[in-house]
Input
Amino acid sequence: MVKDDRKNKLLANAVANLKRDKLGMGIDLLDEILLVDPNSKVALLARGSVYLKISPTKAIYGARSNFDSKTSWKTSWKTE
Output
């Protein structure tokens, strides 16, 4: 139950930041949600949407995201 409360608070804060166009803070909060619940479809979808908003071309052609075994997200961008 505590895990769900934390996740809901983080999601509310992430959405509030995204509405104010604080995309970096929103992504950081979404990353925290994914640390708590790596299978959170809402956080994954929102995070992907933010990356599309930041740079549609890089998000479509250059983003490589993978889930590290230590429950941390790593994203790298191709620079070619």
